Amino acid sequence: MPDQVLDDISHRRYNPLIGSWLLVSPHRTKRPWQGQQEAPSKIKLPEHDPKCYLCPGNTRAQGDSNPEYENTFAFVNDYSAVKEEQQEYNPEVNKDDVASLLLQAQPVTGRCYVLTFSAKHDLTLADMTTQEILPVIQTWTRIYASHLSLSHPLKAEAAQALERIPPNPHGEVEPPKRQLRYMQIFENKGAAMGCSNPHPHCQVWTTSTLPEEPGKELVEMTKYHGGHGRHLLEDYVKLEMEKGERIVWQNDAFLVVCPWWAIWPFEVLIIAKRHIRAIVDFTDEERLQFTEAIQEVTRRYDNLFETSFPYSSGIHQAPLDCTKDEAETSWFHMHFYPPLLRSATVRKFLVGYELMAEPQRDITPEQAAAKLRDCGGELYRKSLG
């Protein structure tokens, strides 16, 4: 067990992945709550919604019609955050000019995709079996592989992955016109996390720049590898497996853990146990075991408060265009950031001190892991009438 005193005193914890600190205040879980409460998700959705712009056969906002797909369907977002073509912007940088130093901007181009998980409007990943989730992982793999640079250190592995995974006519996307730097695969689930459509889906944003969060992680993982000759997440996996305090679930290939430095109440990391640099490194068995890990996390979330649990999740892996050192330093992992704190209606807010000083949490990661460990078994709503 960790030092028992940490269950009762305020303390800071270090996040080695991004080189930051957070405040932990476990005694605050006893305070009464009279603030905003979320409405629990109890709406029964139809299997097909004729008004949904993601359901098979329906017309989307810009007029395109969806095919009659069966599982995954990928398309360029009708309202992309970044675009491939835009006006050029190349400002001159003058180190003696204050405006050049303080008012910096750089152009970002790219392409944003939407990817459905299922043709059924009323499902979530928690409802789906591992075999139903597998096409999602396969499509992520094919999209990532198709966007790698020609000189990428994982190009051979990507080619092998494409040979092993059957193509999906509705899940294929055309490669971008210009080489892009990074691909962020993420899901926003639930209205509490800003999701505007309940149809099970994720987004894939590809950009010409390396975004802030994976960029910080790459810097810290590179530092750690250079200073110790080992991988940061390799050591962290071994440490968590030795201690067992924050482990939620594991199989042969992946560890599911509430990380020591978690900010969100029931934050979870899925970490590869061996050195997997990107999704194209998976063996067929690891691909299936990754679906098991995702299914375990999402089902336990729903069982925790017996609600359709909101979260934002995202994969961090080797950039699309990178050096050999950047690829070798990368370690595949997936973040889950859920906002619920005490129940299906009480959420965590990152405000005040969190915005002005540093992140803060109440329930400890060890307490969160214990609660999630106890939420295994059948999805709660399958036993409801």
From TrEMBL:
Q: List, alphabetically, the Pfam families matched.
A: GalP_UDP_tr_C (PF02744), GalP_UDP_transf (PF01087)
PROSITE patterns assigned to the protein according to its UniProt record, in alphabetical order: GAL_P_UDP_TRANSF_I (PS00117)
Q: What class of enzyme is it?
A: transferase
Where UDP-alpha-D-glucose is bound, by residue?
28-31, 61, 77-78, 188, 194-196, 203, 348-349, 353-354, 360
- Residue positions annotated to bind Fe cation are E217, H316, H333, H335
The record's catalysed reaction(s) read: alpha-D-galactose 1-phosphate + UDP-alpha-D-glucose = alpha-D-glucose 1-phosphate + UDP-alpha-D-galactose
- Which molecular-function annotation in GO is an example for this chain? zinc ion binding
Co-factor(s): Fe cation; Zn(2+)
Entry's Gene Ontology cellular component terms: cytoplasm
Q: Where does Zn(2+) bind?
A: C52, C55, H121, H199
Looking at the record, the residues that make up the Galactose-1-phosphate uridyl transferase C-terminal domain are 220-374
What name has this protein been given in UniProt?
Galactose-1-phosphate uridylyltransferase
